[in-house]
Amino acid sequence: MVQKGKGSEHVKYKRFMRKKFCRFCAEKTPFIDYKDTRTLKSYITERGKQLPSRMTGTCARHQRELTEAVKRARNIALLSFMEK
Amino acid sequence: MNYYENIVILDAALEDTGIDAAEKRITDLIEKMQGEVLKHERWGRRKLAYEINKHEKGYYLFFVFKSPPAAIKPLEELYKVFDPVFKFMIIKLRKQEVIALKNSMQASEAKAAQQSAQSDAPVEEAAPTAAAAADAPSGT
Ligand SMILES: [Zn+2]
């Protein structure tokens, strides 16, 4: 409470944000399936853009895999490129 | 031999006979190229996430097959000239995906074997295995 500067900012941040973790690591997903649009949809915005890992907490490896899966799903029209 | 996954989108206006014919033509070609179709599914008519060549809907076919890499080129050539197909995607499965595929095929084989064993067995003996089978889907 008495803390100033960076410390208090940190406390503020903590109050609003739950600890993020990579869902795919936690569930030990063997691979991310591009056909599983329900999962993919939780990692894209309403307009269809992919969410950054800093928002979702996905680790670098799975973020890469996710990007690949989203691209495949878009290619075959399971997901859209842009929701107007 | 590699494992591939293949989605083909057919014209949604196609009659069922046309879909049968298209599916046969694709599987025939895969087999002709020394491949083996491991799974084929019909996802049916679906709304596309975006328009492709003025199509709003498409009939999705899904194949999983095992074939030499040389089979892919002719397959792509077929899709390019095959009228009912307006979009396709062939993907080579990675190691983890191949493992998952083999596991799922083994599981479905085991299930089929269990079912046929059950139908042969007398009713009293079949009861406990039936209970076990009922538990199984919730775990997977
Ligand atoms: Zn991860």
Please provide a brief summary of the model:
The complex is a heterodimer of chains A (84) and B (140). Chain A is mainly α and 84 residues long. Chain A has a domain at 21-75: Ribosomal protein S18 (30s Ribosomal Protein S18, Irregular).
Architecture overview:
The complex is a heterodimer of chains A (84) and B (140). Chain A is mainly α and 84 residues long. Chain A has five helices and no strands. Chain B has 140 residues and is an alpha+beta fold. Chain B has a domain of 92 residues: Ribosomal protein S6/Translation elongation factor EF1B (Alpha-Beta Plaits, 2-Layer Sandwich), CATH 3.30.70. Chain B contains four helices and four strands, in the order βαββαβαα. Chain B has a four-stranded antiparallel beta sheet with strand order 2-3-1-4, with helices on one face. In chain B, a hairpin with a 2-residue loop joins strand 2 and strand 3. The longest helix of chain B has 26 residues. In chain B, 16% of the residues are buried. The C terminus of chain B is likely disordered. Chains A and B meet through helix 5 of A and strand 2, strand 4 and helix 3 of B. Bound molecules: zinc ion. Zinc ion binds next to helix 2 and helix 5 of chain A.
**CATH top level label of the domain at 2-93 in chain B:** Alpha Beta
Assigned CATH class of the domain at 21-75 in chain A: Few Secondary Structures
Instruction: Give the mean pLDDT of chain B.
Output: 86
Our measurement of the CA-to-CA distance between the termini of chain A, rounded to an integer number of angstroms, reads: 46 Å
Main sheet makeup of chain B = 4 strands, antiparallel
Helix content of chain B: 40-55%
The main sheet of chain A comes to: none
If you average the pLDDT of chain A, what whole number results? 85
**Proportion of residues in extended strands of chain A:** under 5%
Q: What structural class do the secondary elements of chain B suggest?
A: alpha+beta
What's the CATH H-level homologous superfamily of the domain at 21-75 in chain A? Ribosomal protein S18
- What is the radius of gyration of chain B computed over CA atoms, rounded to a whole number of angstroms? 19 Å
Low-confidence stretches of chain A: none
Unreliable spans of chain B: 124-140
CATH architecture of the domain at 2-93 in chain B: 2-Layer Sandwich
